[in-house]
Design goal:
single chain; mainly alpha; about 150 residues; 4 helices; two-stranded antiparallel ribbon
């Protein structure tokens, strides 16, 4: 029976040695990987993530504002008001769905009944001279051509 106990002990030692070898190789790999990892980069990345989370929270707060809408508003009343507004808008539209305020005027032309003179046609009034100063068609002093820049 001692031979069987020795064999079991030998198997346990062999397993222990394999485990130690695996731990050593894992330790070696981790040390190599840790040399490439820079703590400052990780800290910077964490800071950037925190900043992004703060911005995201601000956006969520902004989108979730209540705008002081009372809690006791009945949705049925709101739907009734909306239906009334739609009915008013349908009364304003005529013809092809264009609101009445965008429709062309259907009022008759009263210009013939008013006997208004027609707009002048032709050339502008020539410049005239008052107090030895030349005036333009509006009665203002005419600007000399030399001072005009164009």
């Amino acid at each position: 029976m001692q031979g069987g106990a020795f064999f079991v002990l030998w198997l346990e030692v062999a397993a222990y040695l394999r485990e130690m070898s695996a731990l050593k190789s894992a330790n070696k790999e981790l040390k190599g990987m840790m040399k490439t990892v820079k703590i400052q980069e990780i800290d910077n990345l964490q800071d950037d993530m925190m900043d992004l989370m703060e911005v995201s929270n601000e956006i969520q707060e902004s989108l979730g504002r209540s705008y002081n809408v009372p809690d006791d508003i009945d949705e049925e009343d709101l739907m009734g008001e909306l239906d009334a507004l739609e009915a008013d808008m349908s009364l304003e539209t005529e013809g092809e769905g264009v609101p009445s305020y965008l429709q062309p005027d259907n009022e008759p032309d009263y210009s013939d009944e008013l006997n208004l003179p027609s707009a002048p046609i032709g050339h502008a009034i020539p410049a005239r001279k008052v107090n030895n100063q030349v005036e333009d068609e509006f009665g203002l002093p005419q600007v000399p051509r030399a001072s005009l820049r164009g």
